[in-house]
Design a protein that fits this description.
Layout: E1 18-22, H1 26-37, E2 41-46, E3 58-62, H2 63-71, H3 75-81, E4 83-85, E5 87-91, E6 97-102, E7 114-118, H4 119-133, E8 136-139, E9 143-149, E10 152-157, E11 162-165, E12 167-170, H5 177-181, E13 189-201, E14 209-213, E15 219-224, E16 229-237, H6 249-257, H7 264-268, E17 278-286, E18 292-293, E19 296-298, E20 304-305, H8 313-328, H9 336-366, H10 373-383
Parallel strand pairs: 1-2, 1-12, 2-8, 5-14, 12-19
Antiparallel strand pairs: 3-7, 4-7, 5-6, 9-10, 10-11, 13-16, 13-17, 14-15, 15-16, 17-20, 18-19
Helix pairs in contact: 1-4, 1-8, 2-8, 8-9, 9-10
Length: 388
């Protein structure tokens, strides 16, 4: 496409740059695909032996996330696997639709406003694209020691092997060990909310995301993830995890769900297996100042995260990969100036999303009834229509 980032291949006779990507989630997979397309040598390591291919219930992808997935060359597979829709419904706890709003097409008119899909399917699509790119992949592998000099980074892995790289990209998530290893002390902080999630069969009436604010939980919602599937979620104040027996996860989610009408009675009949129910606290993180130290740079949740109140977490991570890959392939020297330019380009957009996502939850925690939630969401989503 005409507006795709320019990622020139090394000139004939040049040795391709070497890059280590730590973490095989959305951000790590995306940057690997883009840098391989640019002709760079990329090693990707992932701590989990299963590459997270079976983890998670569902994911909501808005247009700006879909735009990056199209850049990665996987849009056709994503489109075939997911469920696209263009509006959001807000309901009373009993299921009565209060109003319906058209979603803003943040990815442009030629992409759906929103697409839901099963998270493991998205991960598998990205895994297949990484494999096809020719990147070297090592699963069950972590980086234990990183040492830098003027020319690059030396890495010792958990299996005792070592490697040398021109650049290390830390995409190892919210609890990033790399972030701490390079001296960035920022840590995620809980926002005070938590979410119960489950994948379930799709009721015929569910053709978009519907949200109910109020009732037994702060938010009750669901998103279609395919012709036959949805994921459903309930948001409440976070509780001490030690007080919740994992064997009672289904009972706890079902108890909250029974306070809602509409599609919820049908969904609730499928909340039976505690192993299929996920309970997670909401966290926030925004690393300030820069996202690099020397030749080690953070992307995705390692640098920032936000509650899913605006469904923008994965989108921000994918955009990080797109912007960083563009800069790395621009021909500029891989030094502080380039990595600071990456941070400067990303931080205003990411900060807006993090702060808006946290604010939406805080209004609910504080019981603010006249909050301009629609205005905040509209302003933020309009900003995201611009290319990152």
């Amino acid at each position: 496409m005409a507006d795709s980032p320019t990622l020139p291949r090394p000139r004939a006779g040049e040795t391709p740059p070497t890059v280590l990507v730590i973490g095989g989630g959305a951000a790590g997979n995306a940057i690997t695909i883009l840098l391989r397309r640019a002709g760079m040598d990329v090693d990707l390591i992932e701590a989990r032996p299963d590459w997270n291919a079976t983890t998670g219930s569902g994911i909501t992808l808005q247009g700006n996330a879909l735009r990056v997935l199209r850049e990665l060359g996987v849009w056709d597979q994503v489109k075939a696997s997911g469920y696209a829709f263009g509006s959001l419904g807000v309901t009373a706890p009993d299921g009565t639709v209060l109003f319906e709003a058209e979603d803003i097409r943040t990815g442009g008119k030629d992409l759906p406003a929103t697409l839901g899909m099963q998270r493991p399917q998205l991960q598998q699509i990205l895994i297949d694209a990484v494999r096809a790119s020719g990147a070297s992949v090592r699963l069950g592998t972590t980086a234990e020691i990183l040492s830098q000099n003027a020319h690059g980074v030396s890495v010792r892995f958990n299996d005792g092997t070592t490697g040398g790289y021109d650049l290390v990209i830390a995409a190892d998530g919210l609890g990033s060990a790399t972030r701490a290893a390079i001296g960035i002390s920022d840590k995620p902080e809980p926002t005070g909310m938590a979410i119960w999630r489950i994948a379930a069969p799709r009721p015929a009436s569910v053709t978009r995301t519907d949200l109910s604010y109020g009732g037994p939980a702060y938010i009750a919602g669901y998103c279609p993830t395919g012709e036959n599937t949805i994921y459903a979620y309930l948001v409440e104040a976070n509780r001490d995890r030690a007080t919740i027996d994992p064997a009672a996860h289904a009972d706890e989610m079902r108890r909250l769900a029974q306070g809602y009408g509409g599609a919820w009675p049908e969904i609730t009949t499928h909340i039976t297996d505690p192993k299929k129910v996920n309970y997670t606290w909401f966290d926030r993180l925004l690393v300030e100042g820069s996202w690099h130290r020397g030749r080690v740079v953070l992307i995705g949740d390692a640098a920032h995260c936000c509650p899913p109140t605006m469904a923008q977490g994965a989108a921000m991570s994918l955009e990080d990969a797109l912007v960083l890959a563009e800069l790395l392939g621009s021909g500029q020297h891989w030094g502080d100036e380039l990595f600071q330019a990456y941070y400067d380009r990303r931080i205003p957009r990411v900060r807006t999303v993090v702060e808006a996502s946290v604010q939406i939850g805080q209004w609910q925690l504080d019981g603010v009834r006249d909050a301009d939630m629609a205005g905040l969401i509209g302003r933020t989503m309009t900003l995201l229509k611009e290319r990152p």
